[in-house]
Write a structure and sequence with these properties.
- The complex is a heterodimer.
- Chain A is built from ten helices and five strands; from the N terminus they run αααααααβαααββββ.
- By secondary structure, chain A is of the alpha+beta class.
- In chain A, strands 1-2-3-4-5 form a five-stranded mixed β-sheet, with helices on both faces.
- In chain A, a hairpin with a 2-residue loop joins β3 and β4.
- Chain B is 71% helix and 0% strand.
- Chain B is globular.
- At the A-B interface, α1, α3, α4 and α5 of A face α2, α3, α5, α6 and α7 of B.
Chain lengths: 284, 215
């Protein structure tokens, strides 16, 4: 009788490993060695017995206990790192943007003519002229047709020199840009609200007094609401008008004092800053 | 909308989705609990270990890498939680199986009372298998985790997994079939070198006759 295979070899054999020659050698050994054959058989029987142990049911109440424990842990502030509330994390905005996108997809045709205005929101001479920082008062306003999302917001701010300057100014810790002698000229982009101005006027600023008043009023009220949500002081930079989840909305874009790289946005129902922002997020 | 994958849910959790992790708990709790129960042999310890596992997963969520499946990652955490729990409670191996759990442990069909009794015996014997081997047996034989995945979970080579499963089964067989010889003498079936072969042959002969329902 040749040497007994060791346990590693038997384990490999039972797991179906090894080339044909190796397997044949173990098989030949098992055929002639009762003790090794009994070991392999016992192991096989043990495997059979194990099938009696089916997957246990979850004990009653354990699910609730686990969820409660996980929730409590998630609510616990991590040492050294302030956890941001869910609505201030980029993901929340991402989810909101996804919902917004769905709505936008449902009514794309209705928005087509307004879409052209978006392309012109990036500036033009009127906007350049409006980029005069002065003390106190009005913020530049950009109007975006259709649904707002983070991507469009960023693109519009990048493309609009007034907005860009105002944001840079706020990030640098300055006072908000700039009341104008003529309030209408303060608008960084053409007003596209229904009933004010047709397509022909898209490239020139309009006064749109009614909307202007609303927006001016909002900027006063929304800043504290946003700051309360943020938990620290904010410097207002730009207002953006558009719609969010099908409802007219105003977005306040802010910088954070002392954090020159940080800019955030806060979405409110138009004309109503009494509650929490509908959405918010960082502007990268 | 199609069901989100585990990995997608974890990513959603990390981005701030307040419900994503709870959904992961719901998906995996039974398996995590079951793994812990079979490793620990005690329902109370298994519940504690399952809770520890999910809390650890929550804390480590940001370190999850897509190189492995979420389930592999989670089961590794669960196995670690169970072994930690076993360390804390050295009594785990001595804890009698909860009768309620024993009933649940029995496979459906057949003579119910007999199946319960046998399942209880198997669980009790499993609890006596050295932990290292027991974990491998629980993963590969009870939960049908492929050897390669078990190797990832345990962070050991595949060959080592196979070896541990084999030794675990062997130890289980010895405890189920060894009868009264276990207390007095060395384990018989575990000895396969030439010195032990004689004893093995002698020990296994009479016992066969004593076991009417072997298979």
């Amino acid at each position: 009788m040749p040497e007994h295979p060791d346990r590693e070899q038997l384990a490999a054999f039972q797991a179906g490993d090894g080339d044909r020659r190796q397997r044949a050698r173990v098989e030949a050994h098992l055929a002639g060695c009762r003790s090794c054959a009994e070991v392999v058989a016992a192991v096989e029987r043990a495997r059979g017995r194990l099938t009696l142990l089916v997957e246990p049911e979850l004990p009653a109440g354990l699910h609730d206990r686990l969820v409660a424990a996980v929730d409590a842990e998630a609510a616990r502030p991590l040492p050294g790192r302030a956890r941001r509330a869910w609505y201030r994390r980029p993901a929340a905005w991402g989810a909101a943007a996804a919902a917004v996108l769905l709505v936008a997809l449902a009514v794309p045709l209705l928005q087509l003519d307004r879409g052209r205005d978006l392309a012109t929101a990036g500036g033009g001479q009127a906007a350049q002229e409006a980029a005069r920082p002065t003390a106190g008062g009005q913020l530049p306003v950009i109007t975006l047709a259709g649904e707002l999302d983070a991507e469009r917001l960023r693109a519009a701010l990048d493309a609009n020199p007034v907005a860009r300057l105002a944001l840079e100014h706020a990030k640098a810790g300055g006072e908000p840009a700039a009341p104008q002698a003529d309030q209408g000229a303060n608008r960084a982009a053409p007003e596209t609200a229904a009933g004010t101005g047709g397509a022909g006027e898209a490239a020139s600023p309009t006064t749109a007094a009614g909307t202007q008043d609303t927006t001016a009023g909002q900027q006063q009220a929304c800043l504290p609401a946003a700051a309360a949500q943020a938990g620290h002081a904010l410097l207002p930079a730009v207002l953006v008008e558009g719609s969010y989840q099908g409802q007219p909305a105003t977005v306040l874009v802010t910088a954070t004092p002392g954090s020159p790289s940080q800019a955030e946005f806060w979405v409110f129902p138009r004309g109503d800053c009494s509650g929490r922002p509908l959405a918010s997020g960082p502007l990268r | 909308m199609t069901e989100r994958s585990d990995e997608t849910l974890l990513a959603a959790h990390l981005r701030g989705d307040p419900h994503a992790f709870g959904e992961l708990v719901g998906r995996h709790e039974r398996r995590v609990y079951g793994l812990c129960l079979r490793i620990l042999g005690s329902r109370e310890d298994a519940e504690d270990a399952a809770q520890e596992a999910f809390l650890a997963a929550l804390r480590k969520a940001a370190s999850f890498r897509q190189a492995a499946a979420f389930s592999t990652w989670l089961y590794r955490i669960a196995v670690n939680a169970a072994t930690d729990q076993a360390r804390r409670r050295a009594r785990a191996r001595l804890t009698p199986l909860d009768p309620e759990d024993a009933a649940a442990a029995a496979a459906p069909g057949g003579d119910h009372g007999d199946a319960v009794a046998t399942a209880v015996a198997v669980q009790a014997a499993l609890a006596e298998v050295p932990q290292e081997f027991r974990v491998a047996v629980v993963l590969c034989d009870l939960y049908r985790v492929p050897y390669a995945e078990a190797a990832q979970i345990l962070e050991i080579p595949v060959g080592t997994v196979k070896s541990r499963v084999f030794r675990g089964r062997l130890a289980l067989a010895e405890r189920l079939e060894g009868g009264g010889t276990r207390a007095s003498g060395p384990p018989t079936l575990e000895v396969v070198d030439s010195a032990g072969t004689e004893e093995l042959s002698r020990a296994s002969e009479p016992k066969k006759a004593d076991r009417p329902r072997q298979e």
